[in-house]
User: Fold these one by one.
Assistant:
Number 1:
Amino acid sequence: MQLVAITANSRWRELEAQTREFEPRWAVVSDESLRNTAQIATSVNSRTEWLWGAEHIESVASHDEVDTVIAAIVGAAGLRGTWAAIESGKRVGIANKETLVVAGPLVMDLAARSGAELLPVDSEHCAVFQALQAGRRQDVKRIVLTASGGPFRGRTTAQLADVTVAQALDHPTWNMGPKITVDSATMMNKALEIIEARWLFGVEADQIGVVIHPQSIIHSFVEFVDGSVIAQLSPPDMKLPIQYALTYPERVDGISPKMDWSTAVSLELEPPDLDAFPALELGFQVARSGGTSGAVLNAANEVAVERFLSGQLRFLDIPRACRAILNQHEFDPSPSLDDLLRQDQWAREETLRWKS
Ligand code: MG
């Protein structure tokens, strides 16, 4: 494999180190304001051309030299680059769930027209994708997404009222960025994954279930009509889903940790608490209604999480704000991409103003 292009928003130092190691043709920094302040040691590697500005993400993602794109930009900011990769018929490893949450039907339709191959990198969806290979699509009864339950598993609503930012950022099994870690604590992450699964696998909202599995070893499973359940298991580590998207349909040894069956392993599974984690119900609601609701929920959540992290909102305000904005918005059942981006902007402004 050869790395053709690599992108970052502002962390040019990390990008420079990776560029030195992998010598891609292009390195893109989307925050153009850094062009004059970043000290890139271009002499270290003359093969790489540095590009400044978000528009270059789209140009490298759709370039002829590229055949596989891993779309891993966090949040709605990743939408345009992923869109460009799908439009130009690439294999796209989708690590950015927002693309499908915001624009699921449009993205799936675009992929069908361009011939792009969409491979999930989200660990749950990668598991479902693998489990689905055990049977025929018409024999699938439901898809069940597992959830670690986050740091607050087992707490009641009352016990969640005074959660601090530090507590919310302390995840028991996965080491991720602050936005996704908070999403995991509110279980909004699972809500977004319900919506992602709805579009990616073309199943109805009532064919999707969620089960709490604190060990994060069973990454999700598929139930077939005869009652057989096919699951995918591996130690919690994102290297495996990333690798699978890159090598599919082949499997290679790779560097991900493997299960050790020489020691005892306990796997617990329990139903989620929908009262303590109301974000989950928002996920089902949006998966049922579709249209503009995914874009609105996602945008409202991004802003609500930022406001929680900066101390302006309390933990339980996050799903509350999302529900309020979702219920206020002007629903459109079949929006264009521009409509979605407009609704995204509207939802951000409203959530910024929202008071508990
Ligand atoms: Mg996931």
Note: Residues 9 and 30 are 5 Å apart (CA to CA).
Number 2:
Amino acid sequence: MHDTPLITMLVAGFVLAFLFGTIANRFKLPPLVGYLLAGIIVGPYTPGYVADPHLALELAEIGVILLMFGVGLHFSLKDLLSVRFIAVPGAIAQIAFATLLGWGLGQAMGWSHGGSLVFGLALSVASTVVLLKALQERRMVETEKGRIAVGWLIVEDLAMVMALVLIPAVAGVTGGAQAHSDPVALTLSQILGFDLGITGVILVTLVKVAGFIGFMLVFGRKLIPWILHHIAHTGSRELFRLGVLAIALGVAFGAAKLFGVSLALGAFFAGMILSESPLSHRAAQESLPLRDAFSVLFFVSVGMLFDPLSILRDPLPVVATVVIIVIGKSVAAFLIVLAFRRTAGTALTISASLAQIGEFSFILAELGVGLQLLPSEGRDLILAGAIISIILNPLVFWLCDRARPWFDARLSREEAQPSPAGLVEPAPPPEPDDVPEQPPTLLTDHTIVVGHGRVGSIVTQAVRSLGTPLLVIEDADKRIEAIRQEGVEVLTGNAVSADVLRLANLTGAHTIVVAIPDAFEAGQVTAQARAANPSICIIARAHSDDEIEHLKKFGADVVVMGEREIARGMVDFIKSHRPEKAGPAEEVGHA
Ligand code: AMP
């Protein structure tokens, strides 16, 4: 067979990731542990087939682009600006602190100042893929915590764009050869007739980033939704899907090539600009399968770069690196978020999200080694730190969840004391999925409606008109406010969480309507409701026969399949508008 490295890499990557991901899932481990293992197996440090790691990393970038595009689709400019007061100073302070710790370790290892600085910077920046996957799994992207974490990520991303242009320039100043790697700065220096130095490089970078954002807000904002709107009107699903992909990849690539902005940032802005369009929901759906497939390749490519023996060769520096990433960075982020008068829950979520490193760290490490600033053992440490911190990340989230009640109890007691003078910022409003912050319901013999979207909102109207006590459980910020304004009692948070359900007085409730679209989640809510109250009436929502069976198995009394009801509605309409002389009505199935 002729040489097909790309196909071989894709096939080996997907097949092994699937295999090990499934095995990890079986052992109740996060699937990404399996993906990393698959990467180690196809990597150069283990015997057998060796895939091309650079090819893998490049393909993984497509995953990063689609992930950030997807996050942008859920983000408006208003959302982004609403978190700037915490995300900008928070991210900068945390980068500074983590860089200092990394620099200290580099110095202890006897590296140069430049090498230690690159090492510190590499440890300070979290992986986009790991962070977003963690937030998505916990349905947190659209909550206040999620917005702060994403805002923080954007600031880190911008800081790294700066670092990537500044490091060669600084190395050039000290080493001579690499000064003004930026061609624009170089041309400007030539035109002006004098050396712009590092200030010039910084200025040019800032102007390029501002130019990109300005371009997107002025032209992109009109052009991108217009293009998508027109494709949607062709009626071709295939073209629409292609259009979404072309916009996400095209803008990201253009941003990187023309404006020197990172691919991820470009994609985020493309998504954010589309978020205001009514088509954003469909665009998100269309990019989902590709996004998931390519983000799997990210983990495979990280695994490939990793030499398992490097841990055994010199374990102490590896441990120190992991401690800086997982503990040092987290504690810093935790304290910074608390200093901004957010709750312990938010502080813990932000710290857990950031307690890992990934793609940017590898790019920095490669750059550092290429410029002969960082010794290659520094790169090995960064890789080992990345893989270990990614594996530990679900555990860190779990620990943070456990620690939250403890912190909540302690901090709320402290807050009861008179606050020191000078703290002028008012406490922020309670956050949606901070379960302990909302009191349990006092309602009894009530109806609980889970999910207040297209289905749940109609159900609540009917329940209210019957005068039955009503409680809604909803996790999307935007909806919660609207329901409260209608005077309906709401529990905020993911209904799958036992903590949220506990507050809903299931034992005293009469009926629970599970009106959320995801059958797996609906199954978990149903099972918990049935376990808490054997006599509660459970009405659930499904989209297929399999889902009906699944929900009934978990204890639902009535399962309504959306599609069948749509058909019924249509048939009723046809029947009621039949011409007079038509024959007798037929059964739905024969119509
Ligand atoms: P729709 O599909 O339009 O009926 O919308 C479903 C609604 O349920 C949306 O408002 C979601 O935010 C909400 N929802 C979905 N899953 C959950 C969940 N696990 N917990 C709470 N609310 C949810």
Note: Residues 175-180, 415-436, 586-591 have pLDDT under 50 and may be disordered.
